Amino acid sequence: MKSEVPDAIKEVRHLQVNRMPGDHVLKILMQKVRSLDFSLSVLERYLEESNSKYGSIFREFDKDLGEKDLDVQKIREDIRNLLESQEIIAKDVHNLISWQSLVSMQLGNLVRDNAILRSEVEMVREKQQSVDNKVLVCTSGSSSWTWRFGNNIVETDYSSSLAVSTRSRPSQVLEAAEAHHINSSSLSKTNETTPHILLHQIGEKQEMVWNDQGLGADEVNVTSASAVTIKRYSRLEKLEANLAGVRASIREAARVQNLTSTHEDPDYVPKGPIYRNANAFHRSYLEMERLFKIYVYEEGDPPIFHNGPCKSIYSTEGRFIHEMEMDNNIYKTRDPDEALVYFLPFSVVMLVQYLYAADSHNTDSIGRAVIDYVNVISDKHPFWNRSLGADHFMLSCHDWGPRTSSFFLICTTSP
Description:
Layout: H1 8-18, H2 22-132, E1 134-138, E2 144-149, E3 152-157, E4 163-165, E5 175-176, H3 189-193, H4 195-212, E6 219-221, E7 226-227, H5 235-253, H6 278-291, E8 294-296, H7 315-325, E9 332-333, E10 341-343, H8 348-355, H9 364-380, H10 383-387, E11 392-393, H11 401-405, H12 407-413
Parallel strand pairs: 8-9, 8-10, 10-11
Antiparallel strand pairs: 1-2, 2-3, 4-6, 5-7
């Protein structure tokens, strides 16, 4: 029987036949090492050539980068200087705007002072006219002259024409008219005995005034009827002049577009985007505190007039009426000529309470009360008829406030 155990000698021989010799392996390894050394030498030579070739370029790049860094630092310094200059310019612009606002405010004050000065000059002229009013009357085509000085009438005859200056003093009215129908017998005996004396005195005084004013160069002969009048400004025109000055100051203040007002005010200075123009609003408010005046009519009796609820949902009417009745109200004036608006002191709540019949839906009684009140104040005062009620107002928080104010239309359209 054969043994199945393999023969060890045969297997070793078989392996030795297929095995590579060791010297051959060493030879292959040496070849690879030499190839690797050659590759390394080539790489080193390439790196040396690359370093020699690109080293100068990199050095130039480094130099350029250093110069660029210096330029960047200079640019940053210039930007900082520009920002500082911008801040200085902004401060200068703000100072210029403040100066412009101050100048505009001073111009507005000058306009108002000019209007006030004109009104004072007109008052002086009126007073001077009341004292020195003289009238000269001549008979055209004849030598008969009549002087009226105060209450004294003096008549005299001249053979030659009288030269009178066409310039007139502001407080003097010079008239020339025909005097054919003047009856010399109606003059008093006193005037008949002293015509030449009075005429001589008046003529000397008049000649002295005209010569002092340098009017002798413009003397002409009086041959026809003529009159020189003086422009007098009413109190309403003076008030309108003040309002014109106020409007001019507000328009000037509106040119400043800052979010904060440039006007000084110890109470409050408007600022922020909530205001369309904080400077114009502040100027308008300051002018209102200075000039805005309300006149409260004294006609009418409580409880409908000069009275209102103060402890209900309609207390706005009563509180406003009572505030306007107080004498320490800075907006109230007792002089109606200096008022800008006029308040009708009746309460719609009281009209409804005392005149309206519940559930009747008839407001004629309220309308009659309003119309009667307007008729009373328009007959007693000229202010309603002057503006047809445009500068008059009432205050109401009641539902029937618009219905009550609709009766004013009847007052403005009625003859």
